[in-house]
UniProtKB/TrEMBL annotation:
Belongs to the PP2C family. It comes from the Eukaryota. Keywords: Hydrolase, Magnesium, Manganese, Metal-binding, Protein phosphatase. The keyword Hydrolase applies. Residues 62-306 form the PPM-type phosphatase domain. InterPro entries: PPM-type-like_dom_sf (IPR036457), PPM-type_phosphatase-like_dom (IPR001932), PPTC7 (IPR039123). This is Protein phosphatase. SUPFAM superfamilies: PP2C-like. Its EC number is 3.1.3.16. GO terms for cellular component: chloroplast. It catalyses: O-phospho-L-threonyl-[protein] + H2O = L-threonyl-[protein] + phosphate; O-phospho-L-seryl-[protein] + H2O = L-seryl-[protein] + phosphate. It comes from Senna tora. GO terms for molecular function: metal ion binding; protein serine/threonine phosphatase activity. Its cofactor is Mn(2+); Mg(2+).
Length: 309
């Protein structure tokens, strides 16, 4: 069997600005907020309290908008949220090229996330997202491939990230992006991916990062459907407008969806395409047209707020 590694790359031609209606499939439209109540477990006198030693965890909101043509099946992104330790968040984006091989591209990322979920507290994983990826990949038996990002927060504030492909994560502190993952790809629109086939990447190809988080930091994780359609400065200003993480995730996903369907929006994706020398056909070029527009895709957004716990 040929191994599809292409991701369908359609610049939107639609002028429609209407919002998509969602189907409630297994993982779509999950507005999930994990809010932990502050625990008063300290027994020392207030004067002995050391605020730098307080433990932190995530308050998490999620939102998924499937590709307009894949709404009936819930799209090909999958994600997981766990409150284990300080919190675990992950996104897997199924590579759509598998549809050409009569393989449903959504099956592999969903099984991958389900397996990852089962290994979150595993002794061998020992809170290392790269090992979690290794174990989940080995346990996934479906045919297909996916880009995958996993982030695990320790209660001392260390966020451990492992990323294979072009899902992404931003850390926002006091109105600025202080950390950003970078996409890994073979060539434009062909990301690194974990596959059922030998030809794909492995956990060893993951880009691994550790970031020290502080109470009040905001994490935005998403599939490429978010970052191809929304600029970082838009993410920063939008997140600042919401106190509720579920509302922030929904607003970011809706912004990405609107941009994706806007053929006049000069998206991060179209900017990048032009920077790589990809152009519109000759007959459009002589009419003065340029490659522009959003990119239709499944859009997954996870917003995590670091809170003391
Ligand atoms: Mn995608």
């Amino acid at each position: 069997m040929a191994i599809p590694v292409f991701r369908a790359a359609a610049i939107s031609q639609s002028q429609s600005q209407s919002l998509i209606h969602f189907l409630s499939s297994t993982r779509s439209r999950v507005d999930e907020t994990i809010k932990r109540r502050k625990k008063m477990v300290l027994s020392c006198a207030p004067s002995e309290l050391n605020p730098t030693q307080s433990e932190v965890s995530f308050s998490v909101g999620t939102y998924l908008i499937p590709h307009p043509k894949k709404v009936d099946r819930g799209g090909e992104d999958a994600f997981l949220v766990s409150n284990y330790n300080g919190g675990v968040i992950a996104v897997a984006d199924g590579v759509s090229g598998w549809a050409e091989e009569d393989v449903d591209p959504s099956v592999f990322p969903r099984e991958f996330m389900a397996k990852a979920s089962s290994f979150v507290g595993d002794e061998e994983v020992n809170y290392d997202p790269q090992i979690l990826i290794r174990k989940a990949h080995a346990a996934t038996s479906s045919i297909g491939s996916a880009t995958v990002i996993v982030a695990m927060l320790e209660k001392n504030g260390t966020l451990k990230i492992a990323n294979v492909g072009d899902c992404g994560l931003r850390v926002i502190r006091e109105g600025r992006v202080i950390f950003s993952t970078s996409p890994q790809e073979h060539y434009f629109d062909c990301p690194f991916q974990l596959s059922s086939q030998m030809a794909g990447q492995t956990y060893l190809d993951a880009m691994v990062s550790n970031v020290e988080l502080m109470e009040g930091d905001t994490i935005v994780m998403g599939s490429d459907g978010l970052f191809d359609n929304v600029f970082d400065h838009e993410i920063v200003s939008l997140v600042a407008r919401y106190r509720d993480v579920a509302e922030a995730a929904k607003a970011l996903a809706n912004l990405a969806s609107n941009h994706a369907k806007d053929s006049n929006f000069d998206s991060p994706y179209s900017l990048e395409a032009r920077a790589r020398g990809i152009e519109v056909p000759f007959w459009k070029k002589i009419l003065g047209m340029k490659l522009i527009g959003g990119k239709l895709d499944d859009i997954t957004v996870i917003v995590g707020q670091v809170v003391s716990s």
